[in-house]
Amino acid sequence: MATDAHRPPRLLGISGSLRRDSNNTTILRTLQGRIAEAELILFPLNEIPPYNADLEGDDLPESVQALKRAIAECDGLVFCSPEYNYGMSGVLKNALDWASRPAFNSPLKGKPALIMTSSPGATGGARAQAQLREALAATLARVIARPQIVFAGVHEKIRDGRFADQTGIEVALSGIDDLLREVALVTS
């Protein structure tokens, strides 16, 4: 998608958690208020049904159509996922399964994507990040090559509904900068 010269790049933030007080959604919301050179829109996955190939085509659920439309209309993707049992959340994997259709021609193909993960544990979701990177590569998304962005002990870094780790915010913003450079390459 070529960006309109009169609008900032549009980034789509997708949290891998459905929790009302999700740490991952909180991180994305905190970043929304800190990014000056782009618009970050969050897309909740709450309404995405379990993947069912029988519903592809004319029976595609409206929520899945909305997800695919949002991906197609954005310039880049920002994923923030928890780690569950050494992997990304099932909710996020399910959304990627829907969005990756049709194979080799989905809205994810060629889309610049930044990955962040968080966990109350010491690894910050590094294993989930590896799994998410692999899944996105299979969809032909352009995963940003950079050091991992992981937030360990994340539950201790959320205060008053905001992600309060200034160093973590700066690391995430440097990742957003890398994403925006990739978006500029793709859309120019």
Question: What is this structure, in a nutshell?
Answer:
With about 190 residues, this protein is of the alpha/beta class. Helices cover about 35% and strands about 20% of the residues. It has one domain: Flavodoxin domain (Rossmann fold, 3-Layer(aba) Sandwich).
Q: What does the secondary structure layout of this molecule look like, with pairings?
A:
Elements: E1 10-15, H1 23-32, E2 39-42, H2 62-73, E3 76-82, H3 90-99, E4 112-119, H4 126-138, E5 142-143, E6 149-152, E7 158-159, E8 162-163, H5 166-187
Parallel strand pairs: 1-2, 1-3, 3-4, 4-5, 4-6
Antiparallel strand pairs: 7-8
How big a fraction of the residues is strand? 15-25%
Order of helices and strands: EHEHEHEHEEEEH
The oligomerization state is: single chain
Helix content: 25-40%
- Pairing-aware structural class of the strands and helices? alpha/beta
Whole-number mean pLDDT: 94
Q: Enumerate how many helices there are, as a single number.
A: 5
Give the beta-strand count.
Answer: 8
Q: According to CATH, what is the topology?
A: Rossmann fold
Radius of gyration, Cα only, in angstroms?
16 Å
* Uncertain regions spanning at least 5 consecutive residues: none
The major sheet is characterized as:
6 strands, parallel
Distance between the ends:
10 Å
CATH class: Alpha Beta
The total number of structural domains is: 1
